[in-house]
């Protein structure tokens, strides 16, 4: 397979990694156009970046070399790690994103050309950096209280079926859907919690559901969520090196 062309669009917004790459973090840009997003990610005043940006037509830009620390994750946490920027490669997918206060979004499906480019690029990144399937994450997974990207229209299943990321093979049988049990499983899988309150559990569970059960991400604990979590934990436990 010949690798498609990657356009060099350097950003000054990076510094030195303090750890080796372990995660791949996917985002959407949440801005009206790809050009607007590209300009912002290259603006020294904005102090944000990503390693790559993929336009809706599939064009790939490289903004920061993979060996450098791009600034895409912000305040984040996974597996008790908090410097996710040091530990990850970040890809921005052009998509206007959801509404939020002060911004009118236009969240829409990620076109096939964009997904094909993402698959090819992320396969290469995962191989180069030995990233494990359950370490391919959304921004919302590592920052559930602040972020919802890439969102429920992002097809994690499609990506996993083609070799990038984790997907529960089959839901494990009847599982205890109590909040205590679900919280423990979410923590074991990698999600970060700051306390013990139920409001936070709903936010984190909603991020999990957005990723692994996008048709219902209300954040309410239920047996299916518990079963999906258990299936993923089984997979992670079985394949862990
Ligand atoms: Zn993001």
Automatic annotation (TrEMBL):
Signal peptide positions (record):
none
Alphabetical list of SMART domains matching this protein? Ami_2
Q: List, in alphabetical order, the GO biological process terms annotated in this UniProt record.
A: cell wall organization; peptidoglycan catabolic process; peptidoglycan turnover
| InterPro entries, sorted | Amidase/PGRP_sf (IPR036505), Amidase_domain (IPR002502), NAMLAA_amidase_2 (IPR051206), PGBD-like_sf (IPR036365), PGBDSf (IPR036366)
- Return the Gene3D superfamilies for the record: Peptidoglycan recognition protein-like (3.40.80.10), PGBD-like superfamily/PGBD (1.10.101.10)
Q: Which GO terms describe its molecular function?
A: N-acetylmuramoyl-L-alanine amidase activity
Q: Where is the N-acetylmuramoyl-L-alanine amidase domain?
A: 9-151
**According to its UniProt record, which reaction does this protein catalyse?**
Hydrolyzes the link between N-acetylmuramoyl residues and L-amino acid residues in certain cell-wall glycopeptides
What EC class is this? hydrolase
Instruction: Write the record's keywords in alphabetical order, separated by commas.
Output: Cell wall biogenesis/degradation, Hydrolase
One Pfam family linked to the record: Amidase_2
| Enzyme Commission designation | 3.5.1.28
One cellular component (GO) term of this entry: outer membrane
Family, according to the entry, reads as follows: Belongs to the N-acetylmuramoyl-L-alanine amidase 2 family.
- Protein name, as recorded: N-acetylmuramoyl-L-alanine amidase
